[in-house]
Fold this sequence. Notes:
By secondary structure, the chain is mainly β. It has one helix at 140-146, and strands spanning 10-15, 20-25, 28-34, 54-62, 70-73, 76-81, 94-103, 117-120, 136-138, 155-159. Strands 1, 2, 3, 4, 5, 6, 7, 8, 9 and 10 form a 10-stranded mixed sheet that branches. A hairpin with a 4-residue loop joins strand 1 and strand 2. The chain is globular and about 55 Å long. The chain starts with 9 loop residues before the first strand and ends with a strand.
Amino acid sequence: MQPFRQPFPLTLRVSIAEQRLFLLRGEAVEASYAISSSRFGLGSEPGSYKTPLGRFVVSEKFGDDAPLGAVFKGRVFTGELAPFAAPGADDDLVTTRILWLAGLEPHNANTKERYIYIHGTNHEESIGFPSSHGCIRMRNPEIAALYPLVPVGTEVEIIA
């Protein structure tokens, strides 16, 4: 009789170089999504609008039943649906779903207080290129598909 073995846990890996987020079970890729990281580069400095690197955990989730394109302010659905932004517009709406990250290492311990999320965007045309204000942006249908698969406590790694 074989002993019962737990399946490998799910983790998320974000590759800044590839501008992709990978949903992993162990080291096996279960899904892959194009993302946008910060247009200001990489780092953890307060007020820098940079995307932090290292190990994180999904600390909270928001948007369980919100429609695609739902606009969030302060992690609360405003009742509005985001219009798609004109190319080059500077607005950076948080839409559809939010996975709020908390840093697990000394250099990124301020991540939660910097409000770094994985979230949907009204700038889907910029997915695949660094263009956010620090967060990891995803296409709205893709964050909606990923969201129920990722419980609070899921580990996230953001690598250059």
